[in-house]
Write a structure and sequence with these properties.
Strand order of the largest sheet: 1-3-2-6-5-4
Order of helices and strands: EHEEHEEEEHEEEEEEH
Largest sheet: 6 strands, mixed, barrel
Number of domains: 2
CATH topology of the largest domain: Ribosomal Protein L25, Chain P
Strand content: 25-35%
Shape: extended
CATH class of the largest domain: Mainly Beta
Number of helices: 4
CATH superfamily of the largest domain: Ribosomal Protein L25, Chain P
Amino acid sequence: MSITVNATLREDQGKGASRRLRKKEKVPGIIYGGTKDPVMLSLSIHEITHLTENEDTFTSVLDLVVDKNKEPVVIKDLQRHPAKNTIAHVDFLRVDAKHALITTTPLHFIGEEENEALRVGLVLNQFVVSIEISCLPKDLPHGIDVDVSSLALGEHLSLTDLVLPEGVTITSLQHEDVEAHDQTVCSVTEPKIIIEEEIEEPVDGELEGEEGAEGEEGAEGAEGAKDEGEAKGDEAKDGDSES
């Protein structure tokens, strides 16, 4: 089923124009690519928010309708407000049915419930959750399934282990040195155990001994100060007698 996005043309540009659009519950956008010039767009905040709640919107060729003209596109970039998380801008890329497009697709990890190692308490570490792919628009998948049902302790899956749909390639593996770009996607390991160090409390005898030692040191210090004071007093008296 095709997904339709409705938009209208806009002429104003800049931050001020964008603010005015958002006050009218509109979102600024742009469409570019192919042999045509870029076109500035305006979209309904409610419609685009609803569409982007569906993951398939990001992994499908969309029908962008602008003033009754329809053309195939994909979402190339989507910007959100840093605090409100609302959609602030949308970039659409024109799609040519005869030319491969490069886009990002999510990884769907399946088979976790059937995995015996995970059922007894081991952990599945997911290092890669999306990958960049290249394919014709007709071959664009909604995601890549990663079957982990038979993964045992100490085993892992890499990019080269993924089963790709026909016509789809992983862009990072198109280099000559495939091994250097073959990332680990996931692995099964034992859970990390956090050990809390126990603080040993001193027994009563040790505590009394320490306090006694401190008392003795204090007494010795007081006696020393007293002796020193008496000595200085004697010196002062001697000085007065001589004068």
